[in-house]
Write a structure and sequence with these properties.
Helices cover about 40% and strands about 15% of the residues. It has about 180 residues and is an alpha/beta fold. It has one domain: Orthogonal Bundle (Arc Repressor Mutant, subunit A), CATH 1.10.10. The strands form 2 sheets. It has a 4-stranded mixed β-sheet with strand order 1-5-4-6, with no helix packed on it. It has a two-stranded antiparallel ribbon with strand order 2-3. Helix 3 packs across helix 4. It starts with a strand and ends in a 13-residue tail after the last helix.
Length: about 180
């Protein structure tokens, strides 16, 4: 499922476009440099996993990525996918996310863009959004308290429009995949 993105509260979620290709190329260059520093080889299996991960553009668990990878190369196992995702996170290519459901999810780090998440507690859909007003407010709060923010993660949990219209209660705390 593609990542849904919204750039402000007044816009609908949008799909990724071709403008992400230069960012992906930059990230892959970073990965190559990281692997060289660590003395890691670029194997065919790693390339399949990385290509599949980058193409998926979703918040994937290890199991979900393994399912996609096995469609391309059934010989690749869980341990190889696990180690490759950990390498992607350590190199800064992927972000490891925890949405309270007991699973680590991974997303491609966007080279030049920060975003936050809306997570539906009924169906598990994850919507990425950018909201300049929130970013500005965070800066104002940090300034008021003479605090230098080096990192933050903003996650909002609730019900998506589809689940609200179907009468879902949203009492589940575990996001599910559609």
């Amino acid at each position: 499922m593609p990542i849904k993105k919204a750039t402000s509260s007044s816009e609908s979620p949008r799909e990724d476009t071709a403008d992400t290709k230069p960012k992906v190329a930059e990230l892959l260059t970073t990965l190559d440099a990281y692997m060289a520093r660590q003395g890691l080889r670029s194997t065919e299996q790693r390339r399949v996993i990385v290509d599949t991960f980058v193409s998926a553009q979703s918040h994937l668990t290890i199991e979900e990525l393994l399912t996609l990878v096995k469609k391309r190369d059934p010989r690749i196992g869980y341990a190889t996918v696990y180690r490759t995702l950990k390498m992607l996170a350590e190199s800064g290519i992927a972000n490891e996310l925890h949405f309270g459901d007991g699973f680590s999810r991974y997303e491609l780090r966007e080279a030049l863009s920060h975003h936050d998440h809306l997570i539906c507690t009924a169906c598990g859909i994850i919507v990425e959004f950018e909201e300049p007003a929130i970013e500005e407010l965070q800066e104002q709060v940090a300034t008021r308290y003479d605090f230098v923010v080096t990192f933050h993660r903003h996650e909002l949990y609730g019900l998506c429009p589809s689940c609200r219209s179907s009468g879902a209660t949203g009492l589940s705390t575990a996001p599910k995949r559609r």
